[in-house]
Design goal:
The chain folds into two domains: 231 residues, FAD/NAD(P)-binding domain; 151 residues, no CATH class. 29% of the residues lie in helices and 22% in strands. The strands form six sheets. It has a seven-stranded antiparallel β-sheet with strand order 16-15-12-13-14-11-17. The protein has a three-stranded antiparallel β-sheet with strand order 2-4-3. A three-stranded antiparallel β-sheet has the order 6-7-8, covered by helices on one side. The longest helix has 16 residues. The radius of gyration is 25 Å and the shape is elongated.
Length: 396
Amino acid sequence: MAAGTAAGRGLHVTILERNRRMARKLMITGKGRCNLTNNCSIDEFISNVPENGRFLYSALSAFTPQDLIEFFKEMGLPLKTERGNRVFPISDKARDVVDVLVLFAKKNGCHFKTGRAVSLVIEDGSCNGVILESGDKIMADTVVVCTGGLSYPLTGSSGDGYSFAEQAGHTVTPRRPSLVPLESDDIWCRDVQGLSLRNCAVKVEDTLTGKIVFKDFGEMLFTHFGVSGPMVLSASAHMREMHPGRYRLLVDLKPALTFEQLDARLVRDFAENKNRDFSNSLGALLPRSLCPVVVSLSGIHPQTKCNSITKEQRRMLGELLKALPVNISGFRPIEEAIITSGGVKVSEIDARTMQSKLIKGLYFAGEVLDVDAYTGGFNLQIAFSTGVAAGRHILE
């Protein structure tokens, strides 16, 4: 977007791509479907950017989600809006989004070169090009750094832009994973690994404050290390200053039932299984692999007959089913994150143009900046809007 926009103004633009195939990271977004924006207002958009959202106001106002939708429409790629205002290509193929972006750059006259930059050429307070791994130099009046963060390094997103920023004297804030699976030391998570809960509700409790910092309904997955899945990835973005034991998930296994309705269900189930052991009575209520976990955590002896379970025991069981605790010990490695939180300090960047305030002719756009958002197409829109901002203002 930065290159095509700049070339559309008649500038001579070269895209330096370190991979043989362009936009590899874009190809895997949205499980290969590419959730490329969120069709919402600017204010709602910024409310979904917990880190430095106001910095984006100018760029988003100049190139809105609706502008992006119109851009793809004009380029011949029809889009659709799904639940939560998430926008996808009608084809459900990220490849089509990549093809449009490459076509846009080519039609506007961009040149493409394969290679990896290892440092900037900075002379007299101005950025005048890059030095390649091969030792070659590419000289230019302007350099736009659009290298992404640290997540999915096999796609080429390995943090090079942070080195360029530091070389130029910029502050790079601490990087951490965001939109990432979560680790748990609860042994039972490993016992049920592979179990997918498709219609459950989750709350995230900050144990330091006792506050609920996130709520959602949808799908989650238990793994050998803890938990993953769409809800968990979204939850991770709300877990700031992570340390073991600070956060825990509370999983509502029966969100369609009120506590009273669930209790009535338990009364019926126990009546139907009155002479059976408690450990054998939950098969109609829960996934099979989860039954022994709930039995163990309930505090009810497994061999207690269902007709002997007290009202108090049933109440405690109901509370467990409505808030099954998963203690979080940390994030998975940043290489497994969808995005990187942290990056080039935005107070050192012109919010309207994306130009460095420290070095003339140096611009930054996308995930390399210290802005990150929740899931829902927000992060790609940030990349597109900041890219357009840079492309529009180069050499103005």
